[in-house]
């Protein structure tokens, strides 16, 4: 039996929005990627016959968590206000390679703001209209 060691480094994760590299992530989760719907739904008849309906919904959501001091904060707020459509890609160049995103996305709204005696977080949701997970 061999023991395997796998490494991950958050420094190897890059998010680009509209070709701009996003920086100034908050501590903890940097970015979350999620397909909005399952690939299929099922229905079983009273007699046990199974039907499968494939989903053709291409939507996904990517959430980016930044600090209020992030240099990318004003850029993402500007994209939200302009309602511009831009590509977004989240790339992990770690041992397990991953690339998630799409060529058409919009920032849903400017980040909610909270001001206190600490540096607070800002969250941005981007709706991706052609969400894809590229095999590593």
Automatic annotation (TrEMBL):
**Organism domain of life:** Bacteria
Q: Which InterPro entries match?
A: Phage_KPP10_Orf10
- Report what the protein is called: DUF3277 domain-containing protein
């Amino acid at each position: 039996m061999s023991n395997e060691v796998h490494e991950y480094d958050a420094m190897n994760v890059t998010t680009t929005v509209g070709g701009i590299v996003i920086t100034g992530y908050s501590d903890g989760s940097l970015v979350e990627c999620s397909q909005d719907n399952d690939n299929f739904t099922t229905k079983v008849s009273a007699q046990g016959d199974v039907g499968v309906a494939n989903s053709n919904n291409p939507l996904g959501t990517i959430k980016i968590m930044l600090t209020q001091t992030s240099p990318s904060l004003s850029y993402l707020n500007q994209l939200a206000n302009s309602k511009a459509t831009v590509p977004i890609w989240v790339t992990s160049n770690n041992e397990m390679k991953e690339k998630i995103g799409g060529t058409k996305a919009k920032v849903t709204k400017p980040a909610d703001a909270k001001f206190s005696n600490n540096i607070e977080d800002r969250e941005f949701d981007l709706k991706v209209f052609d969400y894809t997970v590229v095999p590593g």
